[in-house]
Design a protein that fits this description.
This is Sulfur carrier protein FdhD. Pfam families: FdhD-NarQ. InterPro entries: Cytidine_deaminase-like, FdhD. By secondary structure, the protein is of the alpha/beta class. It folds into two domains: 115 residues, Ubiquitin-like (UB roll) (Roll), CATH 3.10.20.10; 142 residues, 3-Layer(aba) Sandwich (Cytidine Deaminase, domain 2). Helix content is 25%, strand content 31%. The protein has eight helices and 17 strands. The strands form five sheets. It has a six-stranded mixed β-sheet with strand order 12-11-13-14-15-16, with helices on both faces. Strands 1-6-7-4-5 form a five-stranded mixed β-sheet, covered by helices on one side. The radius of gyration is 20 Å and the shape is globular.
């Protein structure tokens, strides 16, 4: 299979400004360097994405995948990003069939930065089949959360961004494969989708995969995770009603409120292997004293 050519465009992730603190003092602080990236497909303007710009080519590739505009990664010949003009030029091998019809309906989602998807949110959900038998253990879940906690991030230095990560549990531990931050969680998951597509024939594609996000599990996030073939999703936040319904229907294990050793498994708990010895429940007297 021929993979597309991707440029390696780089842009600063943060910018330094001056702000006044609570003491009236002027101090220098870092803030995320949000920028616009207009995507052109075969010279046709498609969308403008607001992004940090860490991995713009993978973001565009994953966006096309998760919007269901391109079926195979080999259908893309190249993605060229030029930050001087804020544009990404996508060249396909055979064009995108019925692109006008496919992009005619736009749904504004709850994604940060006002995310959107083309077509109906529930299109093709019924056809998704996630791998059976894949799971995460409680110790792997705790390891995943701790890895995120220790990660040096743009959020720690500048705030105002969301993070997503892809983990593999094939080794018995929760091993991080990719970590992405962006101004919106939908951008971060699209970037991971692009990376997965570029590596779908590598050993990573056979690994038991778990997706992590700092954002809430909305229907958009659950659907994108399912489209990527990931059966377990972990969030630092919670889940929406529609996200819960979609996760139930596609067989996806959705775990939320995952901080330290606390979590809630909202759907398909059979994919979570509990290990009761890892935590102790506080007794009633201690709970009252607290």
């Amino acid at each position: 299979m021929t993979l597309p050519y991707l440029t390696q465009a780089q842009a600063p992730l943060t910018s330094e400004i001056e702000a006044v603190n609570e003491f009236g003092e002027l101090q220098k602080v870092s803030i995320p360097a949000e920028r616009a990236l207009t995507v052109y497909v075969d010279k046709r303007e498609l969308v403008t994405l607001m992004t940090l710009g860490a991995n713009p080519e993978l973001l565009v590739l994953g966006y096309l995948r998760n919007q269901r505009l391109v079926r195979e990664v080999a259908d893309i010949e190249s993605i060229t990003v030029d930050w001087e003009v804020g544009a990404a030029a996508v060249k396909t091998r055979h064009g995108i069939e019925d692109i006008e019809a496919k992009t005619a309906q736009r749904v504004v989602t709850t994604g940060c930065g006002q995310g959107s998807v083309f077509g109906g949110l529930m299109d093709e959900v019924d056809s998704i089949r996630l791998p059976a038998g894949e799971f995460i253990t409680q110790s792997q879940l705790y390891g995943l959360v701790n890895t995120i906690r220790l990660k040096e991030t743009t959020y720690k230095s500048a705030g105002s961004v969301h993070a997503c990560a892809l983990f593999s549990t094939a080794s018995g531990e929760a091993d991080m494969l990719l970590f992405v931050e962006d101004v919106g969680r939908h951008n971060a998951i699209d970037t991971i989708a692009g990376w997965m597509w570029m590596n779908e024939n590598s050993s990573f594609s056979d690994a038991n995969q778990v997706f992590y996000t700092t954002g809430r599990l909305t229907s958009e996030m659950v659907i994108k995770s399912a489209q990527m073939g990931v059966p377990v999703v972990v969030s630092r936040s919670g889940i929406t009603q529609m996200g819960h319904q979609v996760a139930q229907s596609v067989g996806l294990c959705a775990i939320g409120r995952a901080t330290n050793k606390r979590f809630l498994c909202y759907t398909h708990a059979e994919r979570l292997k509990l290990q009761p010895g890892l935590v102790s429940k506080p007794d009633a007297q201690n709970s009252q004293d607290a």
